[in-house]
Write a structure and sequence with these properties.
The protein has 95 residues and is α+β, with helices and mostly antiparallel strands. It has two helices and three strands. The chain has a domain of 60 residues.
């Protein structure tokens, strides 16, 4: 029998999942979100000239409110401090 199938196009499955879980947890803590709030985390290729090749986009949806932040680095490199700074800037911009 051959070894288990390995998808050559997969994006470091466990690493990406763990990073997304951490970012979601930090977002919930930083914004004191209730359980019913939806938090999504995506890693996208950035096509803006001069932009790093990857960006992490966090979307928070609660009732009719929505907050979106982009951090111009790969998901695995985002720290809780990066997220806190991005949320702080986004909240100030909404005011």
């Amino acid at each position: 029998m051959s070894a288990a199938f390995v998808n050559p196009l997969a994006r470091n499955g466990a690493s990406v999942i763990n990073s997304a879980r951490s970012i979601k947890s930090w977002a919930r803590q930083l914004l004191a979100l209730p359980d019913e709030a939806v938090v999504t985390v995506s890693e996208l290729a950035c096509h803006v000239p001069g932009c790093p090749p990857k960006e992490t986009v966090i979307l928070v949806m609660q009732d009719t409110d929505m907050l979106q932040v982009s951090i111009h680095m790969a998901m695995k490199d985002v720290s809780e401090q990066d997220l806190a700074h991005a949320f702080s800037d986004a909240v100030k911009a909404k005011q």
